[in-house]
């Protein structure tokens, strides 16, 4: 079984799960997102965001392929490129961190170490670019898959709370610790990414 990790580009954007391909939860502010949904332009907006971020900042996501089949992905970018982030009560994210936007592994590929591959690939990419940490907004009342990652699983994989909140704490993972995760942390990471489903991709905050 061959595994391959590649950067997300305009050429492979359609390899994202269909719901994720048309989801602009993180890429637009709430008002612009609603307007794009009303006009049916979400796929074009997603493409425009990927294009602009690639040109201005560089790699902003990874796709993992198993025997040529897309099996999972992760999206990340500096906070300034993620308009939705300012809508959270625990914003703004730190300027020295990249924001983990969302991640997902298809059910049939879960439990095979792909989560480790995705996030370590992201961590190595960001470390080479001089970024010190990954931050994310977690959901402490997470009940079903959506765009906001479940806080308890993120805490289980090594994130620490940097700004508490009863619902949406801001969490941080120093990259020096991300590179040397232990096996038990990798198992928790698989649970985290496996819990994210594109079926809930349009769930509002």
Which percent range describes the beta-strand content? 15-25%
In round numbers, the mean pLDDT is: 86
Percent in helix: 25-40%
Cα-to-Cα separation, first versus last residue: 38 Å
Shape: globular
User: What is the overall number of helices?
Assistant: 7
Sheet with the most strands, sense and barrel status: 8 strands, mixed
Number of strands: 8
Structural class: alpha+beta
- Computed over alpha carbons, the radius of gyration is 16 Å
Low-pLDDT windows of residues = 197-205
Question: N-to-C SSE series?
Answer: EHHHEEEHEEHEEHH
Description:
By secondary structure, this protein is of the alpha+beta class. Helix content is 32%, strand content 23%. The protein is built from 7 helices and 8 strands; from the N terminus they run βαααβββαββαββαα. It has helices at 18-21, 30-39, 42-56, 114-128, 151-156, 175-178, 183-194; strands at 3-7, 61-66, 69-77, 97-105, 133-139, 149-150, 160-163, 170-174. Strands 1, 2, 3, 4, 5, 6, 7 and 8 form an 8-stranded mixed β-sheet that branches. The termini are far apart.
Write the layout of secondary structure elements.
Blueprint: E1 3-7, H1 18-21, H2 30-39, H3 42-56, E2 61-66, E3 69-77, E4 97-105, H4 114-128, E5 133-139, E6 149-150, H5 151-156, E7 160-163, E8 170-174, H6 175-178, H7 183-194
Parallel strand pairs: 4-5, 5-6
Antiparallel strand pairs: 1-2, 2-3, 3-4, 5-8, 7-8
Q: Short summary of the structure?
A:
The protein has 205 residues and is of the alpha+beta class. It contains 7 helices and 8 strands.
